[in-house]
Design a protein that fits this description.
Helix 3 (40-64) packs antiparallel against helix 10 (206-223), helix 4 runs parallel beside helix 10 and helix 5 packs across helix 6 (98-123). This protein has one domain (2-291): Na+/H+ antiporter like fold. The chain is built from 14 helices and no strands. The protein is 78% helix and 0% strand.
Length: 303
């Protein structure tokens, strides 16, 4: 039974990652995505926030709240994984600029793919992770699976929308429930297959560490850019790339606690960020989707 749940979780991780990124390619045009990326200062701030300050924040949290090695590694993996597809849903909830959110997503995902193969071996040099067994693989061995699951689906989605523009809006409403269901399978399967370990994690400082990482990352992103973009960068920095972290945790490590830590932090993230998004929607003037209002009814929501 436990082996069957583990296999179901592995498949669900793949479905969630591919489906989420494919929906981004279907929902947005390349021009709307690339436009905001021409602002060099904004791009620099986003990169510093996500790939310098948040990993340093995770190290500081681990030193303040000592964690078991697998849990610490799960926290570090999330700290090094940016560009979560769920950002689009948070942006809608906060009434933020969806075009900027999509641009931030497409910026962070490729950098995550390049960053993680170098970041993981460095993270494994942390003194608290010495007891974990890890044989560093090549950059390609770690980067190719991330490229296939995170970047290729976006490109395929963009091409599919170009070749079949009428079919894309019909496919998007299907992808939403599929990715949501796969995330539920990941959460339920991970908990059911490792119930004793989950209870142990909940009794440890892992939940507090997760809250500090998510909340601290939001503050970092929110304060690092100008006011009109603060909501997007705050949410985009706080919502870590669960799919990328899960791909690495499930592929390169055997200890289930690593994936469990990623799962627990993902749940914590949803519980923390949706209230924040709601509060932001109360203070931020409504920003429409990246297309004319007259066309809004014709475009389905992304997954």
């Amino acid at each position: 039974m436990r082996a069957a749940l583990a296999e179901a979780v592995s498949i669900a991780v793949l479905v969630f990652a591919v489906g989420s990124m494919f929906s981004v390619g279907l929902a947005y045009s390349l021009r709307k995505i690339v436009g905001p990326l021409r602002e060099v200062r904004g791009v620099f701030r986003a990169l510093v926030a996500n790939f310098v300050l948040v990993p340093l924040l995770a190290v500081g949290i681990e030193r303040t709240i000592p964690l078991d090695p697998p849990l610490a590694l799960g926290l570090f993996l999330l700290a090094g994984s940016a560009g979560a597809p769920f950002l689009i849903k948070l942006a809608r909830a906060s009434r933020s600029d969806l075009a900027v959110s999509a641009a931030l997503l497409v910026l962070l995902v490729p950098v995550t793919v390049v960053f993680l193969p170098f970041y993981v071996p460095l993270a494994m040099m942390h003194p608290s992770l010495k007891s974990l067994s890890y044989v560093p693989g090549s950059v390609l061995a770690l980067g190719v699976p991330l490229l296939v699951t995170m970047i290729v689906p976006v490109v395929v989605g963009l091409l599919f929308k170009r070749v079949a523009p009428r079919a894309a809006p019909r496919l998007l409403p299907i992808l939403g429930p599929v990715t949501t269901a796969s995330l539920l399978v990941i959460v339920v399967g991970s908990i059911a297959g490792n119930l004793g370990e989950v209870l142990r994690i909940l009794k440890s400082g892992a939940v507090v560490a997760s809250v500090l990482l998510i909340a601290g990352a939001f503050v970092v992103g929110f304060l690092l850019t100008r006011e009109e973009r603060s909501s997007v960068l705050g949410l985009g920095t706080a919502q870590r790339n669960i799919a990328a972290a899960m791909v690495v945790a499930s592929r390169d490590f055997r200890d289930p606690d690593i994936l469990l830590m990623v799962t627990v932090t993902s749940i914590v993230g949803l519980l923390v960020l949706f209230p924040i998004a709601w509060l932001l929607s109360r203070r931020t003037p409504k920003v429409g989707p990246p297309f004319r209002p007259a066309l809004a009814s014709r475009v389905a929501k992304p997954a």
